[in-house]
Design goal:
The chain has four helices and three strands, in the order E-H-H-H-E-E-H. By secondary structure, it is of the alpha+beta class. The protein has one domain. A hairpin with a 4-residue loop joins strand 2 and strand 3. The longest helix has 8 residues.
């Protein structure tokens, strides 16, 4: 759910201050039950513009990403050339 409303669009655009929450019905799913165990063992880098709470199954957007936080091997020029065809 995004800001208390159910969404089913994977590519939905979020803004600063938005909150994503797993629906209570979906929280009973086996995938989300194992999420805390997987998150404890995973070594993922933390992002400065996202704050997550694995126990509550929430993600809060606290800011906007900067270019320095993007993957270093992204070549913007190739993307622009592809979509300008």
């Amino acid at each position: 759910m995004l800001n208390g409303r159910r969404v089913d669009i994977p590519s939905i655009r979020v803004s600063e201050g938005d909150e994503l929450v797993v629906r209570p019905k979906s929280a009973d799913n086996e995938y989300f039950k194992q999420l805390a165990d997987v998150a404890a063992t995973a070594s993922q880098p933390t992002l400065g513009w996202i704050k997550s709470d694995v126990k509550k199954k929430t993600i809060q957007i606290t800011g906007l990403p900067t270019r320095e936080e993007a993957e270093p091997d992204i070549k913007e020029q190739l993307i622009v050339e592809f979509y300008s065809r």
